[in-house]
Design brief:
This protein is an alpha+beta fold. Helices cover 32% and strands 22% of the residues.
């Protein structure tokens, strides 16, 4: 049912096109240390991550552990912010629906706030590893800082006073360690310390058997509020007996020179070769386990791993790291042509500026950007049940933008759009595992907030604790706070994974989650004028304008809701049919299929407005912002496959064109896919180039400061601020273009493209 559209006829299918001299460079490279986060280079093993700044006098690595969050297991109505608050208001759903029935949108908008719950918790930074060169006399020359995607290794090289220095950085998944190795042509003097933004229980620095060891035990807040809701006193609630605890161990292993400890730091003197090995463990033991009473033994885990890696050579750690990483990364190869040597010799940020300002052709930069997206997903999505968050893995702020949580009205979905087709379906399973968690809490949310008797749902945000309630605490704007289609949308990833992998055992495991999301949809739908629709509903973060001038979000029958429900019900019934075909009849599955078919037959159809655009609202109303970043009414085009041709496709294309090209990074990523899916290859590529528009680091305030959505110097996505979803949406957009628009590049090669009929193809043109 979900066949890919036809590939263009100039293609040649290959049985095995390996790397050759025409393979594009897979290296980001710069000629100066990073000053800002948006210039630093990310490394990660799916749990531990670091941003490499590459300083020559002082080096900073900002560190993260993807399981380090504020908070505790979600307690539903017993949550600190809900207990005794009166939220949600009993009977409020009926009041909202009654207001909508009498077309009183102002009242419905205000009443919706009584259906709000608490906010998500916040993803936290682990801390900073600081390395000071205390004897750094002499001018620096020949500086190079790079990230090689082929082996997931960052490198800094330079000369000081004519002496060569080299530092390598990698994050190993097999050994759960970040390694920084130093080598110089003359003895080095280094002071090494670790600092954290979290509360510290105990910290020490000592030398054991010639190895310097910095150990830091700490904990996060047991509850935190997002900065847009509360700041200052009371934003973070701390208790040493509550919250996630952690131990960070930095081992300093020098091959020569001396190693001493004092004042919480390790001092190395006269060394020419040494390695820093960073390990961390947290007490997080699952979304439903108290991190103190039921947590992992974080002290023992960190200390045991530190001892193991101390006694493993850097070469041994590196070999295991590269083999493990390349098993994933090497499943896909891409060559789009060659960039002139004079251009590709320039630093990556300079190339990006020229690509923006001069509209210069740079096929190797485009291929690099695509593979960078795959690199980022490998680096941030390997911890079971803890998917890549709003910033993937890399966050330096205790109060990050939007809590660095999981935003489910596009952003979390977009993170995983490129996974299957680019050979990273294994990483997609991290998200599927997480859905089991939110389906558990989501059943309570469905019943408590919406009176649903079956199924589960998920609101606008979630976190490592799998919270599922609508957010806002009675004060959130309904345009974002009251949306409840996150479970239905995310569950479509289950069928997507099946299409690409044909893994029936995985489908059987995930089927109850998908069916539960579909059951909520069946319960949530109401009948109006002979069709089934949602009431209340919103179209994520967008506002309509009624004929009398009211701007609001709350209505009935949004196109986005209907599109998501259509996709969810269709996927669920197809999955049920697949299991029935292999396992035989099961009355419950057959009953579900019959109910889903009946609902699909009566589901609110798409409508085309008087201006020829696909309607976003039940009524043919105008948008408050015609160029809004969200285009949720087009979900049926992409990532869904409900609209492929004919008048609806024409109307969808007209709606998309009306949104324009000035938007955020993640929205650019979505629009690339939409244009490509609708067959408008020219505008899809134009939007891709728009996504790669150079954006200055957030803290840069020079005369040439550039703001808005696009791409930072380190090729990370600019919302702005940084959100990783644009990187993944952009990579997915190129995958769509590979199916339809390869003539955009005069010649090239794709190896390892997965298709949604379970096949893998290689293409050359």
């Amino acid at each position: 049912m979900r066949k890919l559209l036809v590939l263009i006829p100039v293609l040649t299918l290959l049985s095995g096109c390996g790397k050759d001299r025409n393979s594009a460079s897979m290296v980001l490279h710069y000629d100066a240390p990073a000053e800002f986060f948006e210039e630093a280079l990310p490394i990660g093993n799916g749990r531990l991550g670091a941003m490499v700044y590459g300083g020559t006098s002082t080096e900073k690595l900002s560190l993260n552990d993807i399981t380090l969050w504020t908070g505790e297991p979600d307690k539903g109505q017993e949550h600190i912010d809900l207990a005794g608050s009166g939220l949600p208001v009993a009977g409020r759903l009926a009041e909202v629906r009654a207001a909508l029935d009498r077309e009183d949108y102002r009242a419905a908008e205000q009443l919706q706030k009584g259906l709000q719950g608490h906010f998500s918790e916040s993803y936290q930074p682990l801390g900073n590893l600081i390395v000071n060169h205390t004897a750094d006399a002499g001018a620096v020359s020949g500086y190079q800082r790079q990230l090689d995607l082929a082996n997931a290794t960052a490198t800094v090289t330079y000369k000081r006073g004519g002496i060569q220095f080299k530092t390598e950085y990698f994050a190993s998944a097999p050994d759960s360690v970040i390694v920084v190795s130093y080598e110089s042509g003359a003895p080095m003097d280094l002071d090494i310390g670790f600092e954290t933004q979290q509360k510290v229980l105990e910290a020490s620095a000592l030398v054991q058997g010639g190895i310097g060891v910095i150990t830091t035990d700490g904990y996060t807040a047991w509850h935190a509020y997002p900065g847009y809701y509360k700041q200052g006193e009371g934003q973070f609630l701390y208790d040493p007996e509550r919250g996630i605890h952690f131990r960070t161990v930095v081992s300093v292993c020098a091959e020569d020179g001396s190693v001493t400890a004092a004042e919480g730091k390790i001092m190395v003197r006269g060394a020419t070769r040494l390695a820093l090995k960073v390990v961390n463990a947290t007490s997080f033991n699952g979304f439903d386990k108290d991190p103190v009473r039921e947590g992992k033994d974080w002290r023992a885990l960190a200390s045991a791993n530190a001892y193991k890696v101390q006694n493993t050579s850097v070469s041994g750690l590196y070999a295991a790291h590269v083999a493990d990483y390349q098993r994933l990364f090497n499943t896909f190869e891409l060559y789009l042509g060659e960039t002139p040597d004079s251009v590709k010799a320039l630093p990556t940020d300079v190339q990006l500026k020229r690509y923006t300002d001069l509209e210069e052709a740079n096929p190797e930069l485009e291929a690099l950007y695509f593979q960078y997206g795959r690199y980022l997903l490998i680096s941030s999505s390997r911890t079971r049940g803890v998917p890549a968050n709003l910033q993937g893995l890399w966050n330096e702020s205790a109060d990050p933008p939007w809590s660095c949580n999981y935003t489910t009205n596009i952003n979390l979905e977009e993170n995983y759009w490129p996974a299957e087709a680019s050979g990273l379906g294994e990483l997609h399973e991290v998200l599927l595992d997480f859905l089991h968690n939110v389906s558990a809490t989501g059943r309570n949310t469905a019943g408590t907030f919406y009176g649903a008797t079956q199924g589960w749902c998920l609101g606008h945000n979630t976190d490592i604790w799998a919270m599922s309630c609508p957010v806002g605490l009675g004060s959130g704007d309904p345009c974002w706070a009251n949306w409840n289609m996150g479970g239905a949308w995310l569950s479509t990833h289950i069928w997507e994974h099946w299409l690409y992998t044909r893994d029936k055992e995985r489908l059987k495991k995930d089927l109850p989650v998908l069916l539960g999301a579909a059951e909520f949809c069946l319960d949530w739908l109401v009948e109006k004028d002979g069709v089934l629709l949602t009431s209340p509903s919103t179209s994520p973060e967008n506002l309509y304008v009624t004929p009398d001038g009211f701007m609001g979000a709350t209505l009935y029958g949004s196109t986005a809701d209907a599109a998501i429900i259509r996709e969810c019900l269709t996927d669920a019934r197809l999955a049920a049919e697949e299991i029935l075909a292999s396992d035989g009849e099961e009355p419950a599955l057959r009953s579900f299929i019959d109910r889903a078919d009946a609902a699909l037959a009566k589901l609110l159809p798409y409508k085309i407005g008087a201006d020829g655009r696909l309607q976003e609202w039940y009524h043919d109303w105008a948008d408050a912002d015609p160029h809004h970043r969200h285009q949720s009414h087009l979900i049926g085009v992409y990532p869904g496959r409900q609209i492929v041709s004919g008048p609806l496709a024409d109307a969808a294309l007209k709606s998309l064109s009306g949104r324009g090209f000035e938007t955020t990074g993640w929205s650019c990523g979505w629009r690339i896919n939409l244009y490509a899916r609708l067959g408008d290859v020219r505008n899809a590529y134009k939007m891709f180039r728009r996504l790669l528009r150079y954006v200055s680091p957030d803290g840069f305030s020079g005369a040439d400061a550039r703001r808005g959505g696009g791409t930072y110097p380190n090729l990370m996505d600019a919302h702005s601020p940084f959100q990783i979803d644009g990187n993944f949406g952009g990579a997915a957009g190129l995958l769509e273009l590979f199916r339809r628009g390869l003539r955009l590049w005069p010649h090239g090669r794709v190896k390892g493209l997965r298709t949604d009929d379970g096949k893998t193809i290689d293409i050359q043109w």
